[in-house]
Design goal:
It is built from 11 helices and 20 strands. The protein is α/β, with parallel strands linked by helices. Strands 4, 5, 6, 7, 14, 15, 16, 17 and 18 form a 9-stranded mixed sheet that branches. The protein has a 6-stranded mixed sheet with strand order 9-2-1-13-20-19, covered by helices on one side. A 3-stranded antiparallel sheet has the order 10-11-12, with no helix packed on it. The structure holds flavin-adenine dinucleotide. The site of flavin-adenine dinucleotide (FAD) has 41 residues, from helix 1, strand 10, strand 14, strand 18 and helix 11.
């Protein structure tokens, strides 16, 4: 079958890879010259299946109220005259209800654990390298009350098949000695030994190359303007830019990240995806800084920052801002991430070298992506992966390839 995959972020590329592997004739389209140049460019790097739970939870409401009006708040709502933003916010609040949190957690856990296994299998099959670290993720606390809360929560997560190990302060330092120099001492944490980290951008570009070696075609610099329908089928996509053309195919997969709703709306398909802006900083490590930098991926519970070692760089990412499609880098928010890193690993950052970045997470109120069929028989979705796109990429890419091929995806997840 000829399959057109629209969007070459980590989600479109994994879709293209598994579709090519399943024997389809795949064309992958992106407006950027190369794959992985938008939200998949500089994320937090975590494959955090052990922490794949929705942000919308009963605990989050008091925290959001506490953060209101703070420019450096981890979660910030900037009100706009945009109904989609308000609708998303209200639906997010509804998903904080305990019953909904429970259902969403179960749903995400199924896909996330499957996805981590798919990534391991893909790595074993292809030998792909992307500065991966496969020694787990440590979520650490610097406050006793917080430690107690995350420990209680770790027990509760067992029922979803998610194994979190509660660790004392000395155990945390044995796992990551670099934390021993933190300005505020670590009091304990939770370790997920099977989690991983790595550079999503390197992975996306290298996997796209492997897909091309296996016969896929990459059309970069081609903007998807619209898709044409006839009855219950999509017949072609219209591309503009240097590669302007009309491309016909037998099946179409939408993986345009935060921009998916715009393409789908004229077809009468509405998905609750809204951009949730986040920031990261990347610090190149000198030989001396490399010695004091952490070697495994960390989640800082108090600062709401994730930190990943990517070879000779350190990436720290966090914050969420509901502020439309604005992609400007906010200096205050990046400075707050940098201050946090400097407090944890004194002496690490040569500020002149720090590379700030902003990206738009394609977020749904439930945190679960829209993967599967639509009312058009040959139009498929793989989008809306929000805070967990890197974590869920291989599982959803593989699942969509199965669905397009007419086979059951074999994963415990609520597909569309
Ligand atoms: C600060 C931050 C930290 C994060 N940390 C993590 C983490 O640690 N772990 C994790 O699992 N996830 C994390 N994420 C989330 C993850 O990065 C995203 O969920 C993921 O990158 C989304 O991938 P995507 O392919 O759906 O979107 P994108 O990477 O944005 O890909 C969509 C592609 O579609 C293309 N496109 C859009 N519109 C058009 C058009 N009209 N025509 C042609 N092409 C088009 C774009 O150019 C883009 O390449 C983080 C995100 C942010 C912002």
């Amino acid at each position: 079958m000829r399959v057109l995959v629209l969007g070459a972020g980590v989600i479109g590329v994994t879709s293209a890879w598994y579709l090519t592997r399943a024997g389809h004739e795949v064309t992958l389209v992106d407006r950027q010259p190369d794959p992985g140049l938008e939200t998949s460019r500089a994320n937090g790097g975590q494959i955090s299946a052990g922490h794949a739970e929705p942000w919308a939870s009963p605990d989050v409401i008091p925290k959001v109220l506490r953060w209101l009006g703070r420019e450096d708040a981890p979660l910030l709502f900037r009100p706009r005259a945009d109904w989609a933003q308000w609708e998303w916010g209200l639906r997010f609040l509804r998903e904080c209800l305990p019953g909904r949190f429970e259902r969403n957690t179960r749903n995400l856990a199924g896909l996330a654990l499957h996805s981590r296994d798919c990534l391991k299998a893909l790595r074993a099959e292809t030998g792909i390298e992307y500065d991966q670290v496969t020694r787990g993720i440590l979520q650490f606390c610097v406050d006793e009350a917080e430690f107690e809360a995350v420990s209680r929560h770790a027990q509760a997560m067992n029922r979803y098949g998610i194994r979190r190990e509660v660790k004392s302060a000395p155990e945390c330092l044995a796992i990551e000695p670099a934390l021993g120099r933190a300005a505020t001492p670590v009091v304990g944490g939770v370790f997920t030994p099977e989690d991983e980290s790595g550079d999503a951008h390197k992975f996306t570009q290298r996997l796209a190359r492997l897909a091309v070696e296996r016969g896929a075609v990459f059309l970069g610099g081609a903007s998807v303007e619209a898709v044409e329908s006839a009855g219950d089928r999509i017949v072609a996509a219209r591309l503009s830019g240097a590669k302007a053309q009309r491309v016909e195919a037998d099946a179409f997969v939408v993986a345009l990240g935060s921009y998916s709703p715009q393409l789908l709306r004229p077809l009468g398909i509405r998905i609750p995806v809204y951009p949730l802006k986040g920031y990261s900083i990347t610090i190149p490590l000198s030989a001396r800084a490399a010695e004091i930098a952490p070697t495994i991926s960390l989640s800082d519970e108090a600062g709401k920052v994730v930190i990943s070692r990517l070879g000779d760089r350190l990436r720290a990412a966090g914050t969420a801002e509901l502020n439309g499609y604005d992609l400007q880098v906010n200096a205050v928010r990046c400075a707050s991430i940098l201050e946090r890193v400097k407090g944890l690993f004194p002496g690490i950052a040569d500020e002149a070298q720090v590379e700030p970045w902003a990206g738009l997470r394609p977020a749904t109120p439930t945190n679960a992506p829209a993967v599967g069929r639509t009312r058009y028989s040959n139009l498929f979705l793989n989008t809306g992966h929000g805070t967990l796109g890197w974590t869920l990429a291989c599982g959803s890419g593989r699942a969509i390839a199965e669905i397009v091929s007419g086979r059951p995806p074999g994963v415990d997840f609520a597909f569309t």
